[in-house]
Amino acid sequence: MERLVVWSPRVLSVLRIITALLFMEHGLMKLLHFPAAQPGAPDPLPPLLLVAAWLEIIGGVLLMVGLFTRPVAFVLSGQMAIAYFLAHGSKGFWPALNGGEAAILFCFVFLYLVFQGPGEWSLDAQVRKRP
After folding, report:
1. TM segments (predicted)?
2. What is the DSSP secondary-structure string of 57-123?
3. Where along the chain do its domains lie?
């Protein structure tokens, strides 16, 4: 059990990095159609989706490297809560039926990062170590 506790900050970093990469993909699909265009996204994007795409890309990069993790995660958690209620919640109560599982999961992983921080492998951790 002690060995697992020692790895906890590193695994938190892995969770943050993987989540950020998956999140960035949504913004890249909206904005650059990479790796493909996001299904159902209008072309051209309305202003609200343009802002969402930039938040997903820039916020995803910042989370991936672990820079300004807590405030960025707070903003992205709020973005995902709003996205859920605007895009998914109106389609029904059950997330599995309204397509909102990813938005809810992103929302709560980001909220967790607000309170837990970035983990050991992050630029935030490196900045804290400097004298």
Report:
1. 6-24, 45-65, 71-87, 94-115
2. HHHHHHHHHTSSHHHHHHHHHHHHHHHIIIIIGGG-S-HHHHT-HHHHHHHHHHHHHHHH-S-SSSH
3. 2-129
Instruction: Output the CA torsion sign for 21, 26, 28, 33.
Output: positive
Q: Which two tokens stand for residue 72?
A: 């960025």
Query: What is the token pair recorded at 57?
Result: 């890309």
d(CA 96, CA 114): 26
Give the pLDDT band of residue 59 (cuts 50, 70, 90).
very high
CA distance 95 to 104: 8
The structure tokens listed for 96 are 């599995």
Question: Which amino acid is present at 107?
Answer: C
Instruction: State which H helix or E strand residue 14 sits in.
Output: helix 2-32
pLDDT digit string, tens, across residues 65-109: 999 999 999 999 999 999 999 999 999 999 999 999 999 999 999
The whole-angstrom separation of Cα 20 and Cα 12 is: 12
Q: What is the pTM of this model?
A: 0.94
